[in-house]
Amino acid sequence: MANKNNLLLLFEHPNEPVFLSKGKKPTVFDVPDSFLTDRYRPISNEVQTRAGENVEQRIPVREISVPDLRIPMSLGRNENFSLFIPRHRRIAGRLIDIFMNMRSVEDLQSVAVYARDRVNPVLFNYALSVALLHRPDTQNLDLPAFSQMFPERFVDSQVFRQLREESFVVSSGSRMPIVIPRDYTASDLDPEHRLWYFREDMGINLHHWHWHLVYPFEAADRSIVAKDRRGELFYYMHEQIIARYNMERFSNNLARVQPFNNLRDPITEGYFPKMDSLVASRAWPPRFDNTRLGDLNREADQINLEIGDLERWRDRILEAIHQKFVVNETGQRIELDEATGIDTLGNMIEASILSPNSSFYGDLHNNGHIFISYAHDINSKHLESFGVMGDSSTAMRDPVFYRWHAYIDRIFQEHKSRLSAYTEPQLNYSGISITGIQVATNGGQPNVLSTFWQQSDLNLSRGLDFVPRGNVFARFTHLQHLPFTYTINVQNDSGAMRFGYVRIFIAPKNDERGQPMQLREQRLMMVELDKFAAQLNPGPNTLRRRSTESSVTIPFERTFRNLDANRPADNTPEGLEFNFCGCGWPQNMLIPKGLPEGLPCDLFIMVSNYENDRIDQQLTGRCSDAASYCGVKDRLYPDRRSMGYPFDRVPRTGAERLANFLTPNMSIVDVTIRHENRTVQRQN
Amino acid sequence: MTNTDLKALELLFQRPLEPVFTTRDQGKTVLELPDSFYTDRYRNDADDVSNRFSQNVELKIPIQELARKPNLDFAKKLSLKNQFSLFNSNHQDIAGKLIQLFLDAPNLKQFVSLAAFTKDRLNPVLFQYAYAVAIAHREDTREVPITNISQVFPGNFVEPSALKDARQEASVIADTGNRVHVDIPRNYTASDREDEQRLAYFREDIGVNSHHWHWHLVYPASGPVAVVNKDRRGELFYYMHHQILARYNTERFCNNLKRVQPLSNLRGEIPEGYFPKILSSVNNRTYPSRISNQLLRDVDRPDASIEIAEVERWRDRVLASIDQGFVENSSGQRIPLDEVTGIDILGNLIEASSTLSINSQYYGNLHNQGHTIISFAHDPDFRHLEEFGVMGDVTTAMRDPVFYRWHTFVDNIFNKFKTLLDPYNASQLGFDGVSVDYVEAKLGASNAQANTLLTYWQKSSADLAAGLDFGPSADGNIFASFTHLQNAPFTYTFNVTNNGPKRTGTCRIFICPKVDERNQPLRLEEQRLLAIEMDKFTCELLPGENTIRRESSDSSVAIPFERSFRPIGAAYQPKGADELARFRFCGCGWPQHLLLPKGKPQGMLFDLFVMISDYSQDAVQQPTNTPNDACSTAYSFCGLKDKLYPDKRTMGFPFDRRLPNASLAELTGAFSNMAKTDLKIVFSDRIVDKA
User: Fold this and answer.
1) Where are the domains of chain A?
2) Cβ of A47 and B172 within 8 Å?
3) How many angstroms separate the CA of residue B355 from the nearest CA in chain A?
4) Number of C-alpha atoms within 13 angstroms, CB side, residue B546?
5) Which residues pair with A374 in a beta bridge?
6) What's the fold here for domain A4-136?
7) From A271, which residue of chain B is nearest by alpha-carbon distance?
8) Which of B16, B31, B284, B376 has its CA 20 to 30 A from that of B633?
9) Across residues A139-148, what is the average pLDDT?
10) pTM confidence score
């Protein structure tokens, strides 16, 4: 009986042949000769003996008759794999299918071993990850962080030369961490570069990759795609990214990001990623300043689209929004109502296979990524692959990602702004009132949050191919903040025990001109910090909640899941909790950087009626702690309200400012986010 | 090699990025360093790492302590991870100082120590450059073969996946004979949608690009005067690049493209985009690309600062001095641009060599700064922290289509000067009593047709082990095979009648395309600019009829390519001293496999032109006491080491100036010491596997 944990070893050293040793405890797969590629089959004995020297564990691989892999193999080993390209999606769908349909873990291991050296390495990682997440017999497996297997997608390429040197020259005991430089993609001459720590944060990019892993927009098995409210979550997660990004821009004296609303305009912002794709042996192509998009005609990628196509889709989508209905493939009208309209639009704009009419409404968001990512070589004349915008693990590095998503968000807001405003009775929770809020870091000033730089070490050895084994660490710098605690005083005058859903948001008080914000603008910058249920006894209640418990984030350790670290045993509730969830905003980025002199913010808390909001389902062991942006695996989204409630719609008449918006069950407090330009080392 | 010091020097060409204490020579040899040589990173681990790498070695070469540690502050501006550019004047200065330092080392042992000490403290490309220049110019290192640059930094020459494959091959399979040759892909930089791609086999040829580097090794633009100030250096700069363009334009005709357009307007868009895709091992970054229709902009960066207007001013001043017939030196004196030395003055002034330019303050740095502006087009203000593109690096510049556009602009300036000189007259061109009666070029096979030559693709292999740093290939060779143009060897046969006494002549062989891009016959005035030098040699003419035979492989232009790609290691060196000398690679020289242009599948017609000039007018009196040099084979482009250029005529003679006749046929009709014949070059689109 095969041990399913061994499957995880197949993720390591993705560019090496499968029979080379893997794992902390040196392990090899005993690969049947017939599974080896043509290069190694004739010399199987020699290479497998050589690879088997000094190993401690051997894993037998059963020889089975292997399913037809022609479709997955039609993507070259050296090509760049992108989920945004329909052809690649179809190929991935086929491979996921193959992995899903293997009858046992043992058979899955065999086919995975066979496929590993034959299909594109990133495709392999993606398809096997999706399969392991969704197969009943493997779903509690803990997937390794993508950044450990393909570190080159997250780190300055220069670092790899040093990593190689360190592994080669120094024995594994005395190796020193290699420092990943800050500020390597651009200089201060580029104002956009002030946001490097956000755009190039490893945790943020990992989150984005994992989000798309959990919510693929295409698969042969429809149930993998058709998750509860996935269209709405697509809208909401990206809306929150834009809100957070804009708040970071205010933290760097920059104006809100300009939506990329004219596809014929040159893109002012250039971007030079300075990373390599080791799979393709190519650098990620840069985009020069002031590049224009062009009509795409790339036969090999089966992409033949004009900018005009995107403009037509956009016009049809806006027409549907303004008419309040979409037309499905059989010509029926589907209303865009308050409850499900946003979900329909999300699937239609992204677009996923759940789109009601993909031939009419097209594939707007995905193709925006494609057009931008090929701007440097629109017709494949120069045999160039896509830029970072073409890949979900790298797209968020590029300033234009936010310009494009700001525009996509504007389309969603076009719909949201047509819904009737929430009324006071809808918002209120009678008998419940908030009497006081305080936020404080441990021992710090009340209502002042503090950010700084932190350096952390990551073991990258699993992603370094063809170098001597042993740990080798890279040290990178990221934003961090002091953990803090919310103290919320809630008065329950209803005379009975009640349950409340506590919703916490933060937004800047002033706009980029220093003027106080109107709520209709400020609501678009409301960043969700937390959401949790609380029991309210009659009379005064004091709720305490730590920032680390946030429903949007996952802890640092989970983002970078180190497989070697002690972790809960499998099949315990804690073990299950640990699973699934690479998805989740990184804890270190919970709050924006703020300004040295302090960024004035409104911290908003609302207690809504949990009886109206709750979803009745069993949540134990389902890793629900980053549910706000990621949902809960195999469960319904754990909040009946529209995502972003109560700020997802325009405020009612009379509520021009946040202060006028408040009903007794809401309250705000002035919070200042202060940034200290110091760097501390993370204690391991 | 018996002397371990010389061996140590040879080993320092291997694995340029690895610390000096790692094993070299296929894991058989280490250098034993004094403790003070370890860099900060390894000083504390010195015992650990030196033990680690001295296990299982056959030879330990002790390195002497340095009498005095050099001060390397002058090189600080160029960090270990920067790209090094010979077009950049700061980098040139640094290189010049380093060359001086190396040349000043008092004896061989101290030179070895100095090299071992500085290697890990300096930018690796800078080190390899200055080190190779020093080896080539020191008396006591004559014996040390200079490793071909494409083996030291293979990343600059081959598609990067080949390096990945090579690493894989070397780490998975022991060197027991089962390793296969890794294939270096062809046609990877662009598709056929790009017209310029038809010339990729030329632009991206490993031999062409390594020739360019080695030429600059032999002719550094800055450094000790003794090293820089070589005989007719400026003229050779003009001529070598002029010949590259003649060859390039002819290749374009072979591929149904018109002649390359000069980049005479630096304000216009550059339609030719170029995406090099190659990866510099020094900083582990891919060379930046240039998208189609990129505009050039003023460069204002910490490492380079140049306005387009400056280049335009220099151009105008250079052209004004050509029109006026003199240049002014820095003290205001007029120096006439005469027939003999004018071109040499202009070459050093336009390139420009900071050491040799007659007035660099006034005439600036035209050619080099053009490279700079183009190479920074993607990031002129260092906003994006990008290094230069391929045009900034002599090992890579010739890959880019714009190289030829820029050099055509530069060449047009030289040609303008040459055109203002008087046409050659009969006394300069003729050789009384000598007549060339018959000319042919013929393939080796006995049944071959005369004057039909053959080109095809050939697959050859090179050893990449020396350049795979931090790789597992320490235990042996790792071969990569690549495909390049090749020509079948052929023999020239000339029948010459000498109606005078026994005399010596210089035989000059050229080929020229016959028709232009419109398929109209070329006038001699145009054709002379496209004349490709094939060979030049002296010949004894006995009274009466003489038959002169010459093998194509003896060409004075080319060096045999295979020689430069021999595997690293003593096992692959010939044993006899004579053979070893001939085997010695000198690096500079046009690759033999590109001696002939590609031609066309249906055959393309050329004029094969032969002239025998009067050696008494050509001969150069060499200074005495200069040793014979083994690398004299490619002197047409590279000169002779430590000697004068061995032909007194201006380079390119007789095609460098206007000629008294309207067509080549009239010219050969007018002068009996010249002859021409139609030559057909047939390209056969097949790959011959030599690997």
Assistant:
1) 4-136
2) yes
3) 35
4) 23
5) none
6) Hemocyanin, N-terminal domain (1.20.1370)
7) B384
8) B16
9) 80
10) 0.87
